[in-house]
Amino acid sequence: QVQLVESGGGLVQAGGSATLSCTASGDTIRNYDMGWFRQVPGREREFVVVFRWSTGSTYYADSVKGRFTISRDNAKSMVNLQMNSLKPEDTAVYYCAAARDNFYVSTSHREYEYWGQGTQVTVSS
Fold it and tell me: Is 90 exposed, middle or buried (0-12, 13-18, 19+ CB in 10 A)?
């Protein structure tokens, strides 16, 4: 079992920045992929970024590449998402997720078993 807890989020202005954090506990998290997804009403949950603990590899969605950065804190089993140059279309509930490390890193939310409770990020125009 893996437990995920997000923190951060809130209301920010367009062009501003925000930081989200996700802390994992339970299983050996270094055997997992951890990522961020986001969802708005009426839309499918969308991939944002994923980090593979075992290799340090990262994969970003085109929509956030160059603006968002994921980082890790090994001692705290934590990943952070630094979001810069925020746009109104970034408004969503952001979810931290974890999946058991497989041969390929997945960008599909269907492949992730463990989820945090979500945190709202609202970007004003």
Answer: buried
Tokens representing 91? 């408004």
Return the pLDDT at 50.
95
Q: What per-residue confidence (pLDDT) applies to 18?
A: 97
List average pLDDT for each run of 10 residues in the chain, which is 125 residues long: 94 98 89 94 96 90 97 89 98 96 89 96 96
CA dist 116 to 14, 16, 31, 63, 102, Å?
A: 26, 24, 18, 22, 20
In three-state form (DSSP H/G/I as H, E/B as E, the rest C), the secondary structure along the chain is CEEEEEEECEEEECCCCEEEEEEEEECCHHHEEEEEEEECCCCCCEEEEEEECCCCCEEECCCCCCCEEEEEEHHHCEEEEEECCCCHHHCEEEEEEEEECCCCCCCCHHHCCEECCCEEEEEEC
